[in-house]
Amino acid sequence: MNRLFAIALITVTAAACNQSSGDDNVVNIYSARHYDSDAYVYDAFTAETGIEVNLIEAGGDLLIERIRTDGERSPADVVITVDASRLQRAEEAGLFAQTDFSALADGVQAHVIDPDGYWAGFALRTRVIAYNRETVDPSEISSYLDLADPRWQGQICIRSSDNAYNQSLLASIIAHHGEQAGEAWARSVVANFARAPQGGDTDQIRAIGAGECDIAVVNHYYYLRLAHSGDPATVELTDRIGLIFPSGNTGTHVNISGVGIAANAPHGENAEAFVRFLFSPEAQRAYAEIANEFPAVTGAAYDNADLRAFDGFEADTLNISELGDNAETARRVFDRVGWP
Amino acid sequence: MTFFRPGPALLGSLAALVAAGPILAVAWLGVTSPWDDYLTHLASTRLAGYIANTLIVSATAMLLAGLIGTLAGWAIARLEFPGRGLLEWALALPLAVPAYVAAYGWLDLTQAAGPLQTPLRESGLAVLTSWMPVVRGPVGAGFVFAVVLYPYVYLIARQAFSEQHPDLQHAARTLGASNWQSAMRVTFPLVRPAVIAGLALVAMESIADFGAVAHLGAPTLTVGVVRAWAGAGSVADAARLAIVLAFFAYIAFALERQSRSRARYGQAQGQQRPTERHALSGWPAGLVSLACLLPILLGLVIPLARLGYLAVTEPVARGVVPALLNSLLVASITAVIAAALGLGAAYAIRSGTRLGAFSARLASLGYAAPGAVAAVGALVLFAGLQMALDGLWGGQFPILLSATAGALVFAYLSRFAAVAIAPSETALARVNARLDDAAMTLGASRRRIATEIHWPLIFTGIAIAALMVFVEVMKELPATMILRPFNTDTLAVIAHNYAADERLGQAALPSLILVLACLPAMILAARSQSSRRSV
């Protein structure tokens, strides 16, 4: 027992001392994403620049806490996460260095860059309305506000309000129309629920197929992933379902996969090189082709016919930083209206 | 065995106090950070719902897991039937299935769009689908926890059943009790502390879980904690809610202690006699075999088979092999250290000192805190230590603590101390104090008592503690994610990343390998038990 104990201690100590000391040609990335597209981009970056990528993937909130408690000692160079309000919280926690994104991210739409210059979106994800082609006339829904219409009673499937994308959607409505209007909207949508929220976005789409609901609110890439799955039954399912990119009122709600350079980045130049690479034609193409996300750079080339078919939607041009400003209000509204 | 020399009680207490560090850091955060109105907002909106869900989820899980675990433990320990040898360890396997994996599998299987309801609807039998249960909501979540966590009860109860002296039943029979009466009034009451120790673990893990309850639409207090974290009060409010959760856990422990204090269950076990197993044949034997197979189907085979089926149409998961090696390494190291910790804490409790009992209970509370909050507690603790170290060093200390594998192992230990302590404690509690007294009278040193009397009697309990911690570490997510060194994935992390992206099929392979990687540990535990019996 004693010997085992000693061996364990030695192993732990050895492992503990085995950390890289930070003087190499590396960039340390803390990412809340874990898509195949990202692995591809990291490899391509290393191939092009010779800079090795060190990676930690964890939930966005955990990453923020890790960098905050590590403080000046944090090895983080670059922080990547999804959902604008999380980036805003990281900014408020003082994790980001101000960066001139106009120099690093040429051609990026202005509304997905933080006005204070702490972070920017490198790929776009829209929250759209999926509908059953047989039972719903898409011309009857031109904005998110239409989902509050009592005519859709018992027909809407949507996830829990714990979901960051729902929080940001309501935050955008509050930013445009005020808290009262947002609360009235959320209350009416809850009254139209087909079932208590459960599962992920894919489950909401499948629920339309099963006839549990006619309308679901989902991120567009889940639909495209199903459509590209190669499984005949799943592809047939997506054929029966359409997507509405709302063009009325304030347009289609856009959220981002975003990036910021850490305030205490030990490899600042490498971090800048990496961020520049995220907005390069090669990376933009990867996000569009592998992850089905819209490129943040206007006019970026990609080969994905289904995504291309949706491109050109009327995007909500509200600056993306407003989502974070209204996220807490949105969560409390959800709590008050009883959206689980 | 110098390990015990300076007084096992004191060492055990100190170790337990250190393990309690992260949960104390969480409490410190909750108390010292500024207050805002978030909690009052929560109290006036969703707090009641969170608490109700927490109670329903944990009660359902405890009820079902208690039933399954006790009956399975009894059947394996007391009956002889076809497949018993295999089922003995296979019944522990569902423990290796992360609860969220089972939740994804079960919801996908039973929901309206799933493979059970769809054929019915398509063949015009839609009427039938309305009464088909869907695994969702608080009861559904309780069911999922029960089928993956019952092994806690099973492992501890089986051990207790097989260590019960057969003379007790003989005495009951002599006094005219029927089989049924002797079971109800002698056999089962005697294993109650073991069952309750297992149930306390089931309760704590089910209230601390996030992934499964969030997916099944059964928001418990833990979901509230994670949500508060994103809110204005950030970590402070999450910490305060976590303290409420720890209070629930405290109640669970109080119940356990009370049930144990009513009676002393120590048995003279100077000479262990092999438990007599009642041989079954014919249809009762087949029935028991099937009944013991059922929990394995529910907790392991069905949810994983569903994910595996989805895997056929999806690309293969990346990086599984290095992740497997990482998982095995950290889980083995932690299991060994945790077993020592559990043993020390069990001695601390047995010593009867206030400090001993208090520190062991405190260390165990970490298990009931949501994993993410416990991970933050560890981060805060390391940040404090780092500052102290940097101060002593007079500059930046060359090692960043939070980036070491040691930090990870420490975080595991503090999170799973309860899992390590419970089996060791029950094992040690069954050793009659009179054995110590007798040995003492014969002039045996404390060390000799520990090595020659206690150790052979409690070895299996310690082994089970190590096994459970091993499996827990294999499954652990939040601490692993945030404290692991760069470029180091574990199986649980990979499985979770795919599942969180709603790529269930790709999550299947790492989940399956996770279960397979736990197999040797399970078989080892079963072996250690039977080999000891033949001594």
TrEMBL record, chain A:
Q: Which UniProt keywords apply?
A: Signal
Domain of life, per the record? Bacteria
* Entries under InterPro entries matching the protein: Ferric-bd
A Pfam family that the UniProt record links to this protein: SBP_bac_6
Gene3D superfamilies recorded: Periplasmic binding protein-like II
Of which family is this protein a member?
A: Belongs to the bacterial solute-binding protein 1 family.
Q: What is this protein called?
A: Extracellular solute-binding protein
Automatic annotation (TrEMBL), chain B:
Report the locations given in the UniProt record.
Cell membrane
This protein's membrane topology, according to the annotation, is:
Multi-pass membrane protein
CDD domains hit by this protein = TM_PBP2 (cd06261)
Q: Which UniProt keywords apply?
A: Cell membrane, Membrane, Transmembrane, Transmembrane helix, Transport
Q: In its keyword annotation, does this UniProt entry include Magnesium?
A: no
TM region positions: 49-77, 89-107, 139-157, 194-218, 238-255, 283-305, 325-350, 362-385, 391-413, 453-471, 507-526
PROSITE patterns in UniProt: ABC_TM1
Main site of residence?
membrane
Q: Where is the ABC transmembrane type-1 domain?
A: 51-256, 324-525
InterPro entries, from UniProt?
A: MetI-like, MetI-like_sf
**One Pfam family per UniProt:** BPD_transp_1
- Quick check: keyword Cell membrane in the entry? yes
The UniProt entry's sequence similarity note says: Belongs to the binding-protein-dependent transport system permease family.
In Swiss-Prot or TrEMBL terms, this protein is called Iron ABC transporter permease
Q: Which species is this UniProt entry from?
A: Hyphobacterium lacteum
According to the entry, what is the taxonomic lineage of the organism? Bacteria, Pseudomonadati, Pseudomonadota, Alphaproteobacteria, Maricaulales
